[in-house]
Amino acid sequence: MKKREKNKKAGVGFFGENTTNIVIGVVCFVLLLFAGVQIYGFFQDQTDMEKAQKNIQFIDIAIKRAKENPGTTYSAMVFSPTGYWIAAWPYKNVPEKPRLCRTFENCICICNPANGITASIESCDSLGKCIPVDSDIKTIYKRSPPTWYKTVSKNIQEYLGGDVTNINIPIEEPLPIEVNITYDLNKGYEVVY
Fold this sequence. Notes:
The chain is α+β, with helices and mostly antiparallel strands. The chain has one domain (54-192). The protein contains three helices and eight strands, in the order αβββαββαβββ. The chain has helices at 2-68, 117-127, 148-159; strands at residues 73-78, 85-89, 106-111, 128-133, 137-140, 169-170, 177-184, 188-192. The strands form two sheets. It has a four-stranded mixed β-sheet, covered by helices on one side. Strands 4-3-2-6 form a four-stranded antiparallel β-sheet. A hairpin with a 3-residue loop joins β7 (177-184) and β8. It starts with a helix and ends with a strand. The mean pLDDT is 79.
């Protein structure tokens, strides 16, 4: 009888102690992994914001040069952040603008993309950089869409009479992308890719 109780206690003690240590170790590992991902994401967002700030300055320089010489096209090289987009506000006929643009009549931004106008405005507010522009401005994406379904969508919009030229410009591989900026006294600025 004593031997049986001893074996029972030894088994519970072994599994109880080791199981508890393993569970605590796994929970600590998961928490550390989660914290690491959060910290990396925070610094990645900051890095993308810094990249957006630097690249919007390149666009600003080209806009100022275009204003000084109407009708002349100036290029701006945009190196990053990949996956962001260049957007001019107000966008089409939508009166809402990102918070960063509300004190200006017109502005241009580099923002993290989102689906829908409201989500895009919120994205520009949280993960974007904008500069004021002193005249009307629109972004024109003349390149062929990268996928067949985007090509079909563009063709349908064009057939239905939609504005397929005033489209946000994606910053995508291969980098850098070159945008051409022209100022016309009557039309304002055009940023073309």
